[in-house]
Design brief:
The chain is of the alpha/beta class and about 475 residues long. It folds into two domains: about 260 residues, Glycogen Phosphorylase B (Rossmann fold), CATH 3.40.50.2000; about 190 residues, 3-Layer(aba) Sandwich (Rossmann fold). Helix 4 packs across helix 5, helix 12 runs parallel beside helix 13 and helix 12 crosses helix 17. The longest helix is centred in the N-terminal third of the chain and has 15 residues.
Length: about 475
Amino acid sequence: MKNVLFVASECTPFIKTGGLADVIGSLPQALKENERIEVRVILPLYDEIPLEWRNQMEFHMSFNVPLGWRNSEASIYTLKYNNIIYYFVSNTYYFTRKGVYGYYDDGERFLFFSRAVIEALTHLDFKPDVLHAHDWQAGMAVALAKILQPITDMKTVMTIHNIKYQGLMPIEIFEDFFDLSREHISGFEWNGMLNCLKSGLFHADKITTVSPSYGEEIKNPYYGEELHPFLLERSADLIGVLNGIDTKEYNPQTDSSIAVNYRSSRAKKKENKMMIQKKLGLPIAAGKPLYIIITRLVEQKGLHLVQHILDDFLHEDVQFIILGTGDAEFETFFAEAANCHPKKLVTLLAFDEGLARQLYASADFFVMPSKFEPCGLAQLIALQYKTVPIVRETGGLKDTVLPFNEITGEGNGFSFTNYNADDLLATLRYSLRIYHDSLQWSVLAKNVNKSQFSWQDSAREYANIYEQLMPINV
């Protein structure tokens, strides 16, 4: 039996701001099926964690956490959920705040969290063989684990979920917050800044990211966010492991949020479509193709492309629904577009998990033309609800959506390569043609029905990585 400790800043069902929480909530559950690995998870104890969870936590211990000349206190609380033990690091100053991120001292907050994790290792009744850190908020834990060595021979894995976010701080922080000699500063510094993500990547034994294509992309300047030279140097240790989704949680056969449950029935999807059309005030027409976008309204998601072609595409006999919140530029544009096309476009500037699932269950097509996408979970959820994805070929979108080929009958969606609005429009129109070709649409639908992206395959790959680091004795 080998012990693995996940270090992360969020995790469903306790606290979530994005896809990272879904990964940390699901991957340990899949890994626990491997009887040779025990996984536990350590997180900050945010004030935002609901009382229903906080009331179940048990106090474990308190200890001092040194940050340079400062000494702050941390307390550890534990909770067992679905046979996984979770540790929560409590500190009134750093984590008793509204929200999770967005504070001027976020770097300091997660430096404290990382140092608290390292201090906790000498007190816990669980001695990790592998410390597996996720994204920049946990990067310093990898660096400090290697330098301070709280557990002899403990190996480390650093996973990049989105390289755009790196946790940058002034280099002077090193002198102020670390009781380390300056010989270590090169492992933390990048381009004149203290870089939390780079510190983890520099010190980790293995580096992973959330799809094979993204693992290749971040080694070049366009996607690498200035870390590409370093990642090229560590290519031998960089592995892309495709994320999955919780197929029990996202299951149209059992989902209580949707009006009509189904396995793969197109007729039942049409029943859901007519109900959502009625609910949102669109003309009720089961045969009219329905396109949806469910996303954060930000540039990364390819929304500038959508802006350029939306009016043209809405001249076709289609319906479109957009659900999400984000930048004012996109919120204003899509709200005004809905006013101009009231019978064809609905814009919902909100996020509602139940409504999102109703849209997945109702739609014929899910549109996700991202500028970059490390993995993407939304296209996997769409496939799970038998909705055809339309994506740009980048990162995990490229790895999970195979473009439909009329000649070979292969493919589970539609895709385009260049970040170009005309290419998106051409792809949308092509999808519309296939929709109205009953024979080709039937072939495509069967391919979508066969698409499966559970966590089991990912868990096996991570188990292999852990075994490479520390061979598991059978």
